[in-house]
Amino acid sequence: MDLFTHTLPNGIRIVHHRVPSPVGHCGLIINTGSRDEDENEHGMAHFIEHVIFKGTEKRKTWHILSRIDDVGGELNAYTSKEETAIYASFLIQDFERALELLHDISFHSVFPEKEIRKEKEVIIDEINSYKDNPAELIIDDFEELIFNHGPMGHNILGTAESIKNFTREDIFRFIRNNYHTDQMVLCMVGDIAPGKFLKAANKYFGKEPPGFRESLRPPTPPYKPSVLRKELDTFQSHITIGNIAYDLENPKRLGLSLLNNLLGGPGMNSRLNMALREKNGIAYNIESIYSPYYGTGVFCIYFGTDRQNIDRSIRIVRRELARLRDKKLGQMQLHKARRQLKGQITIANDNKENLMLNISKSFLLYNKVDSLADIYKKIDNLTATDLMEIANEIFDDNQLSYLIYEQS
């Protein structure tokens, strides 16, 4: 992949990928998320993502939102456990307008008291809406279970109680403590000459004072397999089964990604979808998820079913996991699994906004970006023996945790 990279004097890394398109995508990604919150800051990273659009030293909320919308573009943001991203899509002739706005809201937001009060109510409504969706709630509750209620297990939204207690001073304190310039990547994908992008990036972002992260994230608590059942007033039961998994630095993470895709990925031909839905008709939503993090990771399987089918469904899932532990994939099975994963990665990267965010995160974590050819080579180098060893480590029956919401 043809990338232009540069590090500004304050430590902000910039990366640019030129593609022939009338649309550009640009974002600032910051290596800070909900994991970095203290106990009294639960939900702060996500809260800041909301209120960062509510006014700067020179703009009101309406002016921020209209700046890109008026020229047909889009402004967006997200927060995860370990990063925050603020990004925009726009016609290429408006790239400097977008870049200036991203800088303004990222470094010069003022967080008006009136907007803070208003946004607290919005986020509390978001929390209540989220609680009405057990299929989402159970994933966060599962991570809280396996991470022993530590920061890594906290859901990103926080709680109504924590949100109500946030002050403007708390926001500025969290930013000072966690938003470091050496932990930021400014990325653009679009039809702009690299020199022109560098000049604009330096103009808007290069003058900010440097700030450097001085400590590493603390390790997660030791993992102990757990089983928890809860009664919930729902129309079906919800089940999550999983284990801790490989972190972002582990070379086995690509092999686990392939197994995860084979087991419960987006394809309708995944093993769990075929076993639970197509063959037995006892589940509608089935997926497996692998999320690598700094120093740890999570693998889990989620499905919903009727209460009377819980035990039967779990037996089927355990049988599929045992098949991967006990029997190597055949040559044709391995070929199909490799080809499916490569196809999904390629199609995802064809979306240039996704590509920009993927480049940003890879550069933030590894200071490099693998080309599709490099990724294909790594996938092709995975052997049936490699995958069987990974399956025996992560799908070990004695290391699995279970969280079950039983319909009352």
Care to describe what's here?
The chain has 2 domains: 202 residues, Cytochrome Bc1 Complex, Chain A, domain 1 (2-Layer Sandwich); 181 residues, Cytochrome Bc1 Complex, Chain A, domain 1, CATH 3.30.830. The strands form 2 sheets. A 6-stranded mixed beta sheet has the order 1-2-6-3-5-4, with helices on both faces. The chain contains 15 helices and 11 strands. The model has no long low-confidence stretch (mean pLDDT 95). It starts with a strand and ends with a strand. α10 runs antiparallel to α11. The protein is α+β, with helices and mostly antiparallel strands. 40% of the residues are buried. β9 and β10 form a beta hairpin.
Topology (elements, then pairings):
Elements: E1 4-7, E2 13-17, E3 23-30, H1 44-51, H2 61-69, E4 74-79, E5 84-91, H3 95-107, H4 113-131, H5 134-146, H6 160-164, H7 168-178, E6 184-189, H8 194-205, E7 227-232, E8 237-244, H9 253-264, H10 271-279, E9 286-293, E10 296-305, H11 310-326, H12 331-350, H13 352-366, H14 372-380, H15 384-394, E11 401-407
Helix pairs in contact: 3-8, 9-12, 9-15, 10-11, 11-15, 12-14
Give the key terms.
408 residues, alpha+beta, Cytochrome Bc1 Complex, Chain A, domain 1, 5-stranded mixed β-sheet
